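Input record, target 12 of the design panel.
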């Protein structure tokens, strides 16, 4: 026979006891059924009921297998209980409720006591603070009344005002800020400061009143609004009048000296007012009337000093300045060096694109023309044209300057070739070579392209000293091979082409000497064990090409050395001679 799962049945009394209806608090209504009703319901459903019941009504759970005697014990207790026992149980139940309520009220009262104690302490602290503030206020009122009397009598001084408020600030800082005494201090100081700066010319006497305002700057620290208002009403009128009436755009130093001296005291808003409403209009007017042909004062000398203060605002003037300069450069000749001194300070100020355009359009073509006219003549060298060009090396972009120097080096190598072909005095050739090397600006001398040119000349000199046939450099073809392809690719000369060719030990030594600005060439007529003796700076060396070894003469013997040791030997020789 199929059995249903065992169910846990909660059993409740069959009916409420009549004497429990009074005084019982109603709970949220739920649907309850009695054990008999549950039994009848199960029987109507035709199901077998497992008579296992859990009685949870007492302090302990009872397990029962039948519902018949479920309430038997309770009924017996009811029958046995008397009205007196019922009343006692009722009284006990009410007593328990009363005790719970009393405990709840007691806990609330204790919490109330703690809260009131905290409130008491807070009120006590507030009273102490207010008492202190009251004492502070009485002292402040006394000081303000005293200063007011002195003001009415005309005996009030800036020193007494500043000292009084300094004392108040030091003793009652919180109250000083709370009650806004900075504003009251400013009201006392304003008429006195106005008299101090009345008739003052800050461009003539920039240090006047500086210490006085420093005191008030510190006194009003933390209240920038009050200080700014005090400055604008007491100091700024004199600055505005002097700058407007006496400042000259071409002589910025007086106003700059004032601004530098007062840097920590001039409020930002006041500074911007001076720059925007006084300085910029004067500069714009001066630039509009500027004529480079007639001016004796370079424009950068009176515009650039304002760069730290005006910065990007000056760019509105750059277009006018550049146009005026370019108009003059149409008729300029490189012999006039004033163009360089006027233009070069603007290299880092103009934007790079505008600067490059100016150089390419107006300067580089004329320098190229001069260099084409320049003649290299060891017997009677005229260097004026070379100096005109060299001056611009720091202003012109490097790759453009190298184009100009190519013209010079073409002529230079041609003359060197002809001179070596005529069997010259090699010491004269060396001196001539070193002289030209010294003429090249440092920023160009360190360039690989220029070093390549110098190496060509040095190789020609070495060939002549060794009695070999001097190879004609093939000037234009050589340059096209080594420089133009690299320039087209954006490479530095020496980064490819000639730099990638395998070099002999002799060539490697020559390059190393060049890198260290030392002369490397054969000593004519001097041999050692069948090897040509070379001069490396001030040291005599021989090269064993077969064994790839380098020997240097140290004192009275020849020693095997490295290139680094060779450079150190030369430095030591120079120090000993010095």
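The sequence produced for target 12 reads:
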């Amino acid at each position: 026979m199929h059995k249903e799962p065992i169910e846990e049945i909660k059993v409740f009394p069959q009916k409420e006891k009549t004497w429990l209806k009074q005084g019982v608090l109603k709970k949220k209504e739920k649907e309850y059924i009695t054990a008999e009703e549950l039994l009848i319901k199960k029987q109507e459903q035709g199901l077998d009921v497992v008579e296992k019941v859990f009685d949870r009504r007492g302090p302990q759970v009872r397990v029962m297998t039948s519902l018949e005697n479920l309430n038997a014990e309770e009924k017996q207790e009811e029958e046995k209980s008397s009205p007196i026992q019922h009343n006692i149980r009722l009284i006990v139940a009410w007593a328990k409720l009363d005790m719970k309520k009393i405990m709840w009220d007691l806990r609330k009262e204790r919490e109330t006591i703690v809260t009131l104690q905290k409130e008491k302490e807070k009120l006590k602290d507030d009273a102490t603070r207010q008492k202190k503030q009251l004492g502070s206020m009485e002292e402040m009122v006394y000081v303000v009344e005293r200063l007011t009397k002195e003001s009415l009598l005309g005996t009030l001084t800036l020193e007494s005002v500043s000292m009084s408020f300094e004392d108040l600030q030091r003793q009652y800082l919180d109250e000083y800020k709370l009650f806004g005494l900075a504003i009251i201090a400013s009201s006392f100081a304003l008429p006195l400061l106005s008299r101090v700066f009345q008739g003052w010319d800050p461009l003539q006497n920039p240090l006047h009143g500086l210490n006085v305002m420093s005191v008030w700057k510190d006194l009003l620290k933390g209240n920038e609004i009050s200080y700014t208002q005090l400055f604008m009403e007491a100091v700024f009128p004199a600055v505005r009048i002097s700058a407007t009436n006496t400042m000259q755009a071409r002589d910025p130093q007086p106003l700059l000296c004032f601004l530098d001296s007062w840097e920590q005291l001039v409020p930002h808003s006041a500074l911007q007012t001076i720059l925007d409403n006084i300085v910029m209009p004067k500069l714009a007017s001066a630039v509009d009337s500027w004529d480079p042909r007639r001016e004796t004062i370079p424009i950068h000398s009176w515009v650039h000093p304002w760069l730290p203060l005006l910065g990007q605002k000056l760019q509105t003037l750059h277009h006018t300045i550049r146009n005026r300069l370019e108009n003059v450069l149409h008729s300029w000749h490189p012999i006039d060096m004033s163009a360089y001194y006027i233009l070069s300070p603007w290299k880092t100020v103009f934007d790079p694109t505008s600067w490059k355009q100016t150089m390419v359009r107006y300067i580089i073509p004329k320098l190229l023309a001069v260099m084409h006219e320049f003649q290299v003549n060891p017997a009677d060298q005229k260097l004026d044209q070379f100096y005109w060009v060299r001056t611009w090396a720091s202003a012109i972009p490097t790759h453009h300057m190298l184009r100009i120097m190519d013209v010079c080096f073409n002529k230079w190598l041609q003359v060197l070739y002809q001179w070596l072909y005529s069997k010259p005095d090699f010491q004269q050739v060396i001196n001539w070579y070193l002289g030209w090397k010294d003429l090249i600006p440092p920023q160009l001398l360190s360039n690989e392209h220029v070093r390549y040119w110098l190496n060509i000349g040095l190789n020609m000199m070495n060939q002549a000293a060794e009695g070999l046939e001097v190879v004609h450099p093939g000037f234009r073809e050589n340059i096209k091979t080594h420089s133009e392809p690299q320039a087209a690719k954006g490479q530095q000369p020496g980064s490819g082409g000639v730099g990638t060719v395998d070099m002999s030990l002799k060539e490697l030594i020559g390059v190393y000497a060049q890198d260290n600005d030392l002369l490397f060439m054969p000593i004519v007529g001097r041999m050692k064990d069948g090897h040509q003796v070379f001069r490396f700076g001030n040291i005599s060396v021989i090269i064993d090409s077969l064994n790839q070894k380098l020997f240097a003469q140290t004192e009275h013997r020849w020693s095997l050395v490295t290139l680094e040791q060779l450079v150190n030997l030369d430095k030591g020789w120079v120090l000993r001679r010095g």
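The radius of gyration is 53 Å.
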